[in-house]
Amino acid sequence: MRVAVASDHAGFALKQVLLAHLAARGIDATDLGPSSPDRCDYPDYANRVAAALAAGDADLGLLLCGSGVGMAITANKHPGVRAAVVSDSFSARAARQHNDANVLCMGERVVGPGVAIELFDAFFDAGFEGGRHADRVAKINALDAALAPAQVSAST
């Protein structure tokens, strides 16, 4: 499993903690930036992770900012991305099991390093349960497909 990881300045310190945790677990992680805690804009980095997923360069994404919300809003603009902001392990696990979420978003100003590691592990170790949830995810995917041409024309 390959994980694309990015943050903005407000999530940079937590990104460093989680990259070390992923390495300790032997998880293939790609750091898509930034390379310093200098001020930067979260949409730029959320877009990088979404692009890595779309290109097949990553299976999951991990995005960190001050709250996790801005990253999730941006990532969810991309077809095929199901980004979830979580701050408890039940939601992290359920996001994968029930919603087939493929991007975990967290806020450094919301969760500390220990909780962030717990949340990542709950998310990463869970799998999509399928079953009744598959029909719901299929509806999300159909909506992505239906809106994708409209998104392209709206941005031009």
Descriptive account of the structure:
The protein contains six helices and five strands. The relative contact order is 0.16. The protein has one domain: Sugar-phosphate isomerase, RpiB/LacA/LacB (Ribose 5-phosphate Isomerase B, Chain: A), CATH 3.40.1400.10. The protein has helices at 12-24, 42-55, 69-75, 89-99, 113-125, 132-155; strands spanning 2-7, 28-31, 60-65, 83-85, 103-107. A five-stranded parallel sheet has the order 2-1-3-5-4, sandwiched between helices. By secondary structure, the chain is α/β, with parallel strands linked by helices. Helix 1 (12-24) packs across helix 5 (113-125), helix 2 (42-55) packs across helix 3 (69-75) and helix 4 (89-99) packs parallel to helix 5 (113-125). Helices cover 53% and strands 15% of the residues.
**Number of discrete domains:** 1
* Integer-rounded radius of gyration: 15 Å
* Secondary-structure element string: EHEHEHEHEHH
Dominant shape: globular
For the record, the CATH class is Alpha Beta
How many β-strand stretches? 5
Beta content: 15-25%
Side by side, the strands of the main sheet go 2-1-3-5-4
Derived structural class:
alpha/beta
- The DSSP helix count reads 6
- The CATH architecture can be given as 3-Layer(aba) Sandwich
- For the termini, the CA-CA separation is 35 Å
CATH topology, by name, is Ribose 5-phosphate Isomerase B, Chain: A
